[in-house]
Amino acid sequence: MARPRIKDVARHAGVSEKTVSNVINDYAHVSDRTRQVVREAIEQLGYRVNLAGRHLRKGRTGIIALVVPELDIPYFAELARHVIREAEECSLTVLIHQSGADRAHELAALAGFGSTFVDGIILSPLALTADDLRDRTGFPPTVLLGELLEEGADHVAIDNESAAREATRHLIGLGRRTVLAVGGTDAPGLGTAQARTRGYRAALAEAGIAFDPAALLPVGSFRMPDGARAVTRALREGARPDALLCLNDQLALGALRALHEHGVRVPEDVAVVGFDDVEGGRFSVPTLSTVAPDKAAVAKVAVQLLQHRIEEATAPDGVRDGADARMQAPQDRIVAHRLVLRESTEGHTRR
Known about the structure:
Blueprint: H1 6-13, H2 17-24, H3 32-45, H4 51-57, E1 63-68, H5 74-89, E2 93-98, H6 103-110, E3 120-123, H7 130-134, E4 142-145, E5 154-157, H8 160-173, E6 179-182, H9 192-206, E7 216-217, H10 224-236, E8 243-246, H11 249-261, E9 271-275, E10 289-293, H12 295-314, H13 317-321, H14 325-328, E11 332-334, E12 337-340
Helix pairs in contact: 1-2, 1-3, 2-3, 5-12, 8-9, 10-11
């Protein structure tokens, strides 16, 4: 049986093809009665909108790219699920690309992969610099996730510095005085690790605790084995922490394993807080206290920002000139976070 076309819907509903098109595109000037008749005809005939044709008529492909460092990092996998869900609401298809935190791969993504098959990009950069992002002439519309590298770019993130300060304050409020930062860094820069380290140091200063550079436990990457190795190394070198601020949950889960193998009780001896609120932390033993970004909100805001930018980029000149001036300026959106307290910190206050 042939696939029903728009003219079949029009004939079935007793209206013009233009009216059917107006209903499909949700134009406001169609009466409620006509809208209902057309929708019933669409349902009865099993008509499906040709999204590819609709996008191409607007000079678009209907495809956006989500570029993340590593797909097997749970935070990015969970974020991708939310982005796909939000994109579907906008009739957009998401291409997932893994950059490996490699600058060349991130630059290729920023340039639209050297092609025109994506309308826009949501990019979580780890290797790019502000200079890389400064001149994006001819590049697809782009929304950045994570720390803000360039003030001229659209950007969505939580306030990482404030979140780390809040988490460290909580540990200090439990009476913990020797707080190590797993993944902490003294390297300059505007990345997420730098922001979280600044928040950690600010909380120590507020509490009158002297900062010890040895309290920063560097890692090669932000995976569970890296967290386990960093904590194991610190313990073997004589560190005696009573709390760990881990800059993501993967590091925290690795740290929990290392502490267990060394006979260190959590939270009785060492309290542990992570970042990201990934599913694994809700099932670890003990369950993991963590900073929970609103991942659904990050995805929603990023997709909406990108959709607006795509519409601006493909609008006719007259329409573009009259676009909302507030959207024309780069947007810096801060999304909510919350500190989720679980067994790895709860119930063991020291005084």
